[in-house]
Request: fold
Amino acid sequence: MQSIKSLDLRRQQLERVPEHIRNESQLETLDLDMNQLATLPHWLGELVQLRSLSLYHNRLAAVPETMWSLDRLQTLNLADNQFTSIPEGLGRLAQLQMLDLGHNALQSLPRSMGSLQQLKFLYLSDNQLSALPDSFKNLSALLYLGLTGCRFITLPDLLGDCSALLELRLYHNQLVELPDTLCRLSRLKELHVMDNHLASLPRDLGQLDSLQKLMLQNNQLTALPVSIGRLARLTDLDLRNNHLTSLPESIAQLQRLRFLDLRANALRDLPAGLADLPALEKLDLRWNKQLVLPAWVDHLAQKGCLVYV
Reply:
């Protein structure tokens, strides 16, 4: 048994971790998802070869201090448990690349999180978070950040220092604005901010010149910044259910735009340049009661664009 490197104990209705695992000194992957664990044994820290530990969907509210000595861990999943806080010991897991703390009751994060210099994927969705520690700006390797379903009203400027970010998910919060520093994320490809209370966007949004998906549905936007036309790689733009009365002429510069959803706004007219967008595959204009449809809408449909009016 001491030669086992991977052990899968998912869905076993376990109320405690089996004692014999303590002797499996070469264990690298331990999966205890979807059990009924309320505590973990102190000897967990003796499994010094562990690289992946998954404890998703249990009943944990705390972990033994010894767990933070597992300094070879690259993946740690504590999602869907009963945590209200995470100890500062987390910062000792210097090799961590994926951390899932989603679906708990966290109100804050440890300052030591900034020590996770190798962290690439961080899932924090469906907690009670409304702020991030200052040390968060040190997560220079972070590629994915999920903060959906939390309690953010504003975001800290320090997010703009997470310069490696490729995907940022912020939907189902209470955001009333986005910080200007967010526009420094020049590598960002996807920005999901639907289901918030945004009334405007940063003026320099166009600096996000790697952006491919911009999801803004179900906000309170009344206008878009002119700089949106500089998002040269944008393919998907969802603006449904806002308060837009017009669009900037610069939107006609989005030469790679494939999907444009404008449903349920207050649009009165459309920029003529939309008719010439070469990549446009779908344009949804439904539920704009004051919109006078221009003649070129038929032209778009004849070119093969799917137009809903």
